[in-house]
Amino acid sequence: MATVQTNDILTYYEEVGDGPPLVFIHGAIVDHNQWTPQVDALSDVFRTIVYDVRGHGRTGGSATDAYSIDLFADDLDALITALNLEKPILSGHSTGGCIAQVYAARYPDKISGLILADTFMPELLTRGEWFQRSVMLKATIPPVRLIGYERVEKAMVWFQERLSAGASGNYENIEQLRRAGPKMETNEFAKVIRAVASFHETNIDFSAITVPTLVLYGEHEPPFLRRHAPKLGAEIANAVVREVPGAGHASNLDNPEFFAGAMRAFFTREGLHSGATGLQDSPDSG
Asked: What is the pLDDT of residues 198-220, one digit of tens each?
């Protein structure tokens, strides 16, 4: 087990491979194992780094009273600094994508590329989205204190599937992650959820993000997230947007072969790795 001091916490991380650094940032209420398929696919040509965001997994919680996406970005900067990573590529999923957006805008000269998967901007595009991202998220906290987040999330998945079939993808993938990793403390769940729910209060200057950027989203993503993918593509100057076929919100788990192929094609096209022979496009990556 490897840990490194990042601000006031010890952050758990793992790294595999040798080459340019590629840092993966997982989504909320899971852990670094979310990125196992992509680490397996890309660690032959990249130095892949996965870590557990504050409040999650083996990093665990902290005495800090409230979390924010800005705080998570500060932790990421401390991790990159502690590991002496030179201009890494960042790949963030969902909440991890929010963290990556903040980091990329704040430190544009510290990274060489950006992948934003199944994620959203601070901007609330509709009133219904405001209800989903703020009101409904915060409303999960009281029942989680009573019956645990696993049961509450299953109920939310059931409800989401009634509204948008396929949005949850293969939910068994998420359940397997739950079983494999440490259980999240309820107080940490509350702090993380409040951080995500308040992301709309964050200011991001998207014009500052100039590195090559790949935006990926699942074909069956919830509607509000499908609206954010082209919006991100329009706001970020050097961005490409791609749909992951047959995937729901966890597109990297629902269709890992396509996801990795899209990453390889992006890296090759943008010259983000000199060993291009190891990064040939897959037949379906386009």
From this structure: 999 999 999 999 999 999 999 99
Cα–Cα distance between 165 and 285 in angstroms, integer?
A: 25
264's CB contacts (< 8 A; 6+ apart) are: 41, 42, 279, 280, 281, 282, 285
* CB-based contacts of 3, cutoff 8 Å, min separation 6: 10, 11, 12, 13, 58, 59
The residue whose two tokens read 């995500």 is: 196
Q: Distance between CA atoms of 103 and 143, rounded to whole angstroms?
A: 32
Is the separation of the CB atoms in 263 and 286 below 8 Å?
no
Angstrom distances, CA of residue 93 to CA of 65, 144, 146, 280: 25, 23, 28, 23
- The domain 2-279 is placed in CATH, from the list 3.40.50.1820, 1.10.472.10, 3.40.50.12780, 3.40.50.720, at 3.40.50.1820
Tens-place pLDDT, residues 92-146: 999 999 999 999 999 999 999 999 999 999 999 888 888 888 888 888 888 888 8
271: left (phi over 0), alpha (psi -120 to 50) or beta: left
pTM of the entire predicted model? 0.91
Domain boundaries, the chain: 2-279
